[in-house]
Amino acid sequence: MPRTLHSLHSPEFKEQALLKARGRGARSLASVAGDLNMSHGTLKNWLKAAGPAGPAGPQAQATHPLLEGPVASWSSAQRMGALHESYSLSGEALAGWCREHGLFEHQLRQWHDDFCAAGVSAVREAPGAFRELQRQHDLLQRKEKALAEVAALLVLQKNFQALLEGADK
Questions:
Q1: What is the DSSP letter of 9?
Q2: Cα separations (Å) of 97 from 73, 85, 102?
Q3: Radius of gyration of the chain from Cα atoms?
Q4: What is the pLDDT of residues 2-29, one digit of tens each?
Q5: Helix, strand, coil shares of the chain as percentages rounded to 5?
Q6: Would you place residue 70 in the very low, low, confident or very high pLDDT band (cuts 50, 70, 90)?
Q7: CATH architecture of 1-60
Q8: Which of 49, 9, 23, 14 is nearest to 101 (CA)?
């Protein structure tokens, strides 16, 4: 039994592939097809068959006002908003959310990794600041200990004077 295109790719995959192909920017169609692990010719044929306003046309925009415009031009705040909205989703729900907003799950994973890597690099770049805070903390602890000792000596001195006054009477 010969394989047909319908048996190779689900309609959801085809829709996402068309979205990615239309939103590829300066990338070549062959590059997008390679990312999707599919034939360049198949993707090209899908684009021709769907036309400029096909099922996954460029009009497919996000419904959320923060998440508007082409995904490639989203700011860091928009990407963080997308991560926040999609964080608790998985499986079919996540795939549906991605289709609705015109992006792919791998983009969300990449954005998550990018944000996490930025946080780790910021911590690594600030060891001097950390050492300075640690030095100030140690200094404050020594001062606190010295104040506690002085307070204890004052209490002992007061008690000693009260005992001497009591012995004189």
A1: S
A2: 19, 9, 9
A3: 32
A4: 555 455 778 878 888 888 888 777 778 8
A5: 75, 0, 25
A6: low
A7: Orthogonal Bundle (1.10)
A8: 23
Q: Is the dihedral of CA 123, 67, 42, 93 positive or negative?
A: positive
Domain ranges (residues) in the chain: 1-60, 73-125, 131-169
The tokens describing 146, both together, are 């010295």
**Terminal-residue alpha carbon distance, the chain:** 118
Write out 25-71 in H/E/C secondary structure.
CCCCHHHHHHHCCCCHHHHHHHHHHHCCCCCCCCCCCCCCHHHCCCH
Q: What is the mean pLDDT of residues 123-131?
A: 70
Which amino acid appears at position 152 of this protein?
A
pTM above 0.90, yes or no: no
pLDDT level of residue 122 (50, 70, 90 thresholds): low
